[in-house]
């Protein structure tokens, strides 16, 4: 009950890359970098185990960015001639690569999952970017149709997801922050693309939908959303009917009405009990209280304790303390509510 996990990413250690950045530069090259990635993965696996998490992640230590870490292994993308594009429904501008020809995988995108699988006996989660979020992060100079391009990416994601399942990954999660920017489309072709991405998988499948990392652009956007954030309301009913088993959402210290969770009937709900936009460390009591709140709307056997989003840009020591609060809070909730 109340198994503890995290949305996916964790900070890069100083020996691997720049610290406290969402898109850090690597500190080394070649074999030395690969060794550093492995060491960082093992460090965070041990940290999650020590914190009492039940489902652990590689922390995305082998990727600079949660979307582009996958796109590095996709042919048909021009990374040299980037163009300026508004992303997340023009929330902010970014220089993005262009899709210039038919998409294909160069080979395995994430063989590093094998390293994580070989070094933990815990359930292992691996995260991939969702199709809608990918197409909102690259410019289309080939397909001429947003949905067609998203489906092409979904097919590649499915190929990689099947390989991850064969590697022994227990949970494959697709990160779709763009769902909160394109709420109407999320409930239609967004879910259709997710179904393509999970086709044939027997492992647990999940989708993570949040309001973003604790970076300034996201903090500024949240200020415009008013006293209640009701984006989930537009597509949760469709997600409840989907074939995705788990939904990861933002909860603690957000303005999401908690009764939104009622709309996910039949799904496992990964409740955000750790705030990634604040350096204040939650107490185990606060974590357990948030789980208790979720119990008003979700059967307790379907509640998982999770972070609101990834911890990638956060200070390492704060991230470690937040992991400890997550594990201890889930344990306290089991004692309170079992």
CATH fold title: TIM Barrel
Total discrete domains: 1
Query: How large is the count of helical segments?
Result: 10
Number of separate strands = 10
Description:
The protein has 338 residues and is of the alpha/beta class. The protein has a single domain, classed as TIM Barrel (Alpha-Beta Barrel). Helix content is 36%, strand content 20%. The chain has ten helices and ten strands. The strands form two sheets. The chain has a seven-stranded parallel beta sheet. A three-stranded mixed beta sheet has the order 2-3-5. Helix 6 runs parallel beside helix 8 (232-240). The N and C termini lie close together (8 Å).
Question: What is the strand and helix layout of this fold?
Answer:
Layout: H1 30-50, E1 55-57, H2 68-71, E2 74-87, E3 92-105, H3 113-118, E4 123-129, H4 131-135, E5 139-140, H5 146-166, E6 171-175, H6 183-198, E7 204-209, H7 216-222, H8 232-240, E8 246-249, E9 268-274, H9 284-294, E10 303-307, H10 316-337
Helix pairs in contact: 5-6, 6-8, 9-10
TL;DR?
With 338 residues, the protein is α/β, with parallel strands linked by helices.
Features:
single chain; alpha/beta; 7-stranded parallel sheet; 338 residues; TIM Barrel; 3-stranded mixed sheet
